[in-house]
Input
Amino acid sequence: MSIIVKPVITEKMTAQGEKNNRYGFVVAKTANKVEIKSAVEKLYGVSVESVNTQNYIGKVKSRNTTRGLAIGRVNKHKKAIVTLKAGETIDFYASI
Output
C-alpha cells in the first residue's frame, strides 16, 4: 500500500509552495506523520521540517435532475501539508 496517493496541485497550494515552502499531498487514511515524512523524503529527496494532517469526511451532496433529486456522498480522504526546510523545493512538473 502506498502512503502518498497524489499531490494536491491547486492555486492555493502552489502559492503556499512558493511563499512558505509548503506542499500538499493526499495520503492513505491509515498513514501517520512519521510515515508521511519518510515517504516524502524518500520519493522526492528533500528534507521535511514538519507535517500537518487533515481528515476530510465525505459530505452529502444533492442535485436536481430530470428524474428527481439525486443524492450522493463525496469520498473521504486524508490530506497532509508538508513543510520543507529552507532552500529546498519540489517540482511536480519536472517529469512531464
Remarks:
- The mean pLDDT is 93.
- The first strand starts at residue 4 and ends at 8.
